[in-house]
Write a structure and sequence with these properties.
This protein has 123 residues and is mostly helical. It contains four helices and no strands. α2 runs antiparallel to α4. The radius of gyration is 27 Å and the shape is rod-shaped. The mean pLDDT is 78.
Length: 123
């Protein structure tokens, strides 16, 4: 038994798949992954720096390296998450209708850009 889809059903299904794809792209944005990982590891290393013993600090010549590294990781992770918040992933552009030769409607195929300013036609 074969199902026949109308154009409306097909367009609706395509729209749903595009929406899911956009959601997945935003969810797995590399800035989110890096930001969350740096924040989590930054918290762990900062805690290790807070509870560090005098012996551990003496090994690093008096510098509480875990504390400073953890705070740096926290700042970096928060900067990635702030960047994600201020510049979210743009939705994909709408589909452009194309001619048979693969160029957008209304543009000539082949000699795109030829004959413009500074173009000697040699090539």
């Amino acid at each position: 038994m074969s199902e026949h889809y109308s154009d409306r059903d097909l367009q609706r299904e395509i729209s749903e798949l595009e929406a899911k794809s956009t959601t997945a792209a935003r969810l797995f944005d590399i800035r989110r992954i890096i930001g969350v990982l740096f924040v989590v590891y930054g918290i762990i290393v900062t805690i290790a720096g807070i509870v560090a013993s005098d012996e551990d600090i003496d090994k690093a010549e008096g510098v509480n390296i875990n504390l400073w590294t953890g705070l740096g990781m926290l700042v970096l992770g928060l900067l990635f998450l702030l960047w994600l918040k201020l510049r979210p992933t743009a939705p994909p552009p709408p589909d452009v209708l194309t001619d048979d030769d693969g160029t957008p409607d209304g543009t000539p195929g082949g000699d795109r850009g030829a004959g413009g300013p500074g173009d000697s036609g040699k090539g």
